[in-house]
Amino acid sequence: LLTLNYLELLLQPVAAEVAAAAAQPVAEVDADPRTAPGPNGLTTAEVRRRRLQAGANLVPELPRRSFFRRFLQQYQDTMQLTLIGGAGLSLLAGHRRDALTIGAVLLLNGLIGASQDDGKARSVAALRALVGQAARVVRDGVEQTVPAAELVPGDLILLAAGDRVPADAAVLTATGLAVDESLQTGECTAVDKSQASAALAAGTPVVRGRGQAIVTATGGDSTLGRIGALLEGEERPAPLQRQMDQLGRRAGRIGLWVAAGVTGMALLRGQGLATALTAGVSLAISAIPEGLPTFVTLALATGARRMRRQGGTFQNLGAVESMGAVTALCCDKTGTITQGQMAVAEVRLTGSAWRITGEGYCPDGAFHRIGAPGEPMADPLADPAMRRLLKVLALCNNARLGLDDEGALVTHGDPTELALLVAGLKAGLRASGGEGDRLLEVPFDADRRRMTVVCRDAMGQAMACAKGAPEVLLPRCDRVFIGGVVRRMDSKLRRKLLQDATAMAARGLRVLAAAYRPVPLSVQAVQAEKGLIFLGLAAMTDPPRPEAAEAVRRCKAAGIRVLMITGDHPATAATTAREVGLDGGPGSIVSGEQLALLSDAELGSALAQAVVVARATPAQKLRVVRALRQGGHVVAMTGDGVNDAPAMREADIGIAMGDRGTEVARATAGLVLEADDLLTLVAAIAQGRTTRGNVRRTARYLLGSNVAEVCLMGAALLLGLPLPLLPVQLLWMNLAGDGLPAAVLGDQPPEPDVMRRPPEAGGDLLGPGFSRKVLGHGLRTGLAATALYAWALGAGRPLAQARSLAVATLAAAQVRHLYVCRSSSGAGQVRTAGAAAAAMSLGALLVPPLRGALQLAPLGVGELALAAGIGVAANKGNPA
Predict the structure, then answer these.
(1) Distance of CA 753 to the CA centre of its chain
(2) Which of 216, 298, 389, 549 is the most exposed, fewest CB within 10 Å of its CB?
(3) Count of CB atoms within 10 A of residue 598's CB?
(4) How far is Cα 674 from Cα 657, in angstroms, rounded to an integer?
(5) Contact between residue 627 and residue 653 where contact means Cβ atoms under 8 Å apart
């Protein structure tokens, strides 16, 4: 029974609870003018007053259910109700001892279940965490960070991509603000919230842009608070738990019908009502695998516990099983296959090219002119084109650099933008934000592939600064900055620059173009991106992770297809793919432009040979995952950014990378890795496969034992023999033979070749031949026990002794079946469990008080050896 403590690892799928509980989509509302804080926010005194009225901004904890109430709720499924009915019928038939024994088993099940029933408390705790730990607010005219629990209605909050909305709010001002409302609506597309008064729900991730909003509701009055209150309803088990519970219910219904038929048959033969009821109850009990859902849950929880020790957290138990069924792994490139810490390696101006030394975000490095050996450039900023290029890249940037108390560099923001700021630091450019005010921002997104800002300098003049993919930005440039002079750009020069960008990308570099132009102070976004002046190209390197190649190799050995999906240039992506072992022939690289021209049917064919999908938008990532699933694959999708979330949600299981994963990715994922280590992902697949095998072994063992008991009972009754097993004897056999052995089968260690076998076809959990194996064991064992039982009665042995022989045969067969069901690497655990089960069975035959309680008779050494030999002989086989 101690092994049932593993059930404490049951992880509730909070996102699923939220999606089910949200009765209404978030509505667009107007901010209450009475709570409007003004540009300086609320005063400290006003915050204090409102907090007294509204309370803390926390999802209220649910009222604790009494232990007695949780205890009663354990008796609401078919199997438990059948056992209750069996106890009642036994009592009516005068078998008080049987009724008391069944009642004791029911009481034990209820106590265990009630003590473990704290899933909703964990769900609410995770829901409370969605509010976040901190929020940026403006109070007393000062921007500050406060605990999210201290927010009050009327607070002026600041939001940016990657944040979670800390309370229900209404937008005041916004620039490209969009949120993911999938927790409330189930829709995974970003919802634009740039319009004034647009409603924001607490816990909603901000996927892009920035803005200011006024808090309209906190705590229990917020969206999360209302959802938390709805969690008072019944909990939904994981999908696999429901599947196995349905299997048990089906077996229970079959058992009840068979029991009713047997009871009627006994009455027609002239047997008394008590005898007929006893036969029916016994057969019903033997047919019901009452422990199956519990032990399947135990196996899944064990897999989740093991994975947590290896650095990964499954968000729900169903994800453990899904991970083991994966046949296609879609990986994001930046930060997943690569290190995600970029560095500008080259800068190409019109007429000159420069190599920049240094790695990662370390600000130490030098500028060397390519093709001109010698000392590095003493002052890169002395070149007007270089200075202007680096300045534009620093202005068109939302990343931030700083120093901690020990003088170490602290980074915050997108890796690409951080790399651009660090390149400026290496050249001596200390400004990492802007020269004065930012008047306008047109944010970067995966569809536009560019970003533009308009800044006003100290002289009051405005300048548009833009960066983006060369093929996107160059067509918007009609002039070029050369040698300190602005000149017209002709088509020949534009083609040359595009060729340069393609050549750099072919060497595995990520290339961005930069441009600018003076603009009026009142310029609109559309005009700001026209007639730009081209400055140059910045090429960044992001080397593959050291473990990436080994992870890809192991996935290939396991028959798992690996597909890299990225927004990078096809040449850049192809170089990275080759470095990690994702080699392919013709058709192995598919670009987003090509993908956009394909129908769904054509896309499936194109993906058959692809190893890389480049220049992919979030919508195209979603299409790729959907096409793979429609092609029969079980798909896992990794990601760390907000643009990965739609595809992660569409996949059978999403995997959030730990170090750089945004809250959006974590909320979407079924598996969250603590570190960005692909080998941990491979370990999760291995653990998922191991868990699937353990679930299959547990189900095979338990169902096989039940079929053997049903076969014995049914065959004896058809032959007109007395009841071979009493209800109390059946329950004891299930307790002695099912409990510890089933728990051990659910905790088998990984087999040595678990990652050298191909995935199971179609993700079938029970696998080919499962029913044949279960029925084969049950029929062989049941008929063997029936033959020995009939022989004993025919030889004139007392009925109790014949029943003892049947019990001994079944017990020996169970121990042998335990060995057959084990994994090839679980011999030690199985020996211990088998010895314990054998000892309990022998105790029923050898210990007088227990033997008397079970209404059995003593057996001699020869009889025990005969029963054991028949039971073992009926179950020859190798470990499954």
Answers:
(1) 25
(2) 549
(3) 16
(4) 7
(5) no
Q: By C-alpha distance, which of 508, 501, 362, 355 is closest to 421?
A: 362
139 and 42 in contact (C-beta within 8 Å)?
A: yes
Q: Which amino acid type is present at position 328?
A: A
Q: E strand or H helix at 410, and its extent?
A: strand 409-412
Do residues 280 and 265 lie in contact, with contact meaning Cβ atoms separated by under 8 Å? no
Residue 135, pLDDT > 70, answer yes
Residue 11 has pLDDT above 70, yes or no: no
Closest C-alpha among 304, 288, 280, 331 to residue 702: 288
The answer for 371, left when phi > 0, alpha when psi is -120 to 50, beta otherwise, is left
Q: Is 332 a catalytic residue?
A: yes
CA distance 703 to 301: 21
Quick count: other Cβ atoms within 10 Å of Cβ 257?
12
Tokens of 384: 């007007």
**21-52: burial string, b at 16+ Cβ within 10 Å, e else:** bbeeebeeeebeeebebeeebbeeebbeebbe
- Output the pLDDT for position 1: 27
- Distance of alpha carbon 292 from alpha carbon 458, whole angstroms: 74
Of 332, 445, 568, 677, which residue is the catalytic one? Answer: 332
**Total length of the chain:** 880
- Of 699, 737, 860, 781, the closest CA to residue 246 belongs to 699
Average pLDDT, the chain: 79
Evaluate whether 538 touches 511 at the Cβ level (below 8 Å).
yes
Distance from CA of residue 61 to its chain's centroid?
25
β-sheet bridge partners, residue 590: 613
Q: What pLDDT shows up at residue 303?
A: 86
Q: Which of 278, 256, 255 is nearest to 266 (CA)?
A: 278
Q: Give the pair of three-digit tokens for residue 857.
A: 């008779």
pLDDT of residue 92: 58
Q: How confident is the model at residue 99 (pLDDT cuts 50, 70, 90)?
A: low
Contact 692, 685 (CB under 8 A): no
- Alpha carbon distance 772, 668 (integer Å): 39
Q: How far apart are CA 31 and CA 54, in angstroms?
A: 17
Q: What is the pTM of this model?
A: 0.65
Q: Could you give phi then psi for residue 854, rounded to 5 degrees?
A: -90, 0
Encoding tokens for residue 809? 């045969």
Residue with token string 């022998």: 842
Better pLDDT: 277 or 125: 277
Checking if the pLDDT of 140 tops 60, the result is yes
CA–CA dist 259, 279 (Å, integer):
8
Q: Helices marked H in 310-459 — which ranges? A: 317-324, 384-395, 415-427
Longest dimension (CA), the chain: 116
**Residue found under tokens 């569809």:** 447
Q: Cα–Cα distance between 179 and 319 in angstroms, integer?
A: 26
Compute CA distances 420 → 101, 210, 432, 466, 482, whole Å. 74, 21, 9, 13, 21
Residues 494-529 pLDDT 10s: 999 999 999 998 887 889 999 999 999 888 877 889
- Pinpoint the alpha helices (H) of 310-361: 317-324
d(CA 605, CA 236): 38
At residue 768 the predicted structure's pLDDT band, cuts being 50, 70 and 90, is low
CA distance between the termini of the chain:
26
DSSP string, 645-713: HHHHHHSSEEEE-TTT--HHHHHH-SEEESSS-HHHHHHHHHHHHHHHHHHHHHHHHHHHHHHHHHHHH
Residue carrying the six token digits 């060397």? 368
Helix (H) or strand (E) holding 282: helix 273-287
Q: What phi and psi, each to the nearest 5 degrees, are found at residue 684?
A: -65, -40
- What pLDDT, in 10s, does the model give residues 651-671? 888 898 776 656 556 767 888
Q: What is the dihedral of CA 330, 332, 335, 340, to 10 degrees?
A: 140
Contact assessment for residue 730 and residue 286, using Cβ atoms and an 8 Å cutoff: yes
Distances (CA, A) of 525 to 435, 441, 460, 640: 20, 8, 19, 29
